[in-house]
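Fold it.
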Amino acid sequence: MMEPQESSIRYSRWENSHPDEVHVASGPSTEEASGWQRVSQKLCSGKLGIAMKVLGGVALFWVVFILGYVTGYYVHKCK
């Protein structure tokens, strides 16, 4: 499935003596964009994508749990 490339159009009008200028620039290079698209498609879809999301969720849970545990320990520490 091919998606249209994004492009940016910049219109500038400096003075009446100069002609109007229109600049059309395409987005990132097609090689670079297709490489990133392939990597993101592979990591974010299908069974591998689901596994990555589950592992990311478990890792985030443990990071929050450990931060909460350490914070609670220092907040409620006996003097």
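The beta strands are 7-12, 21-26.
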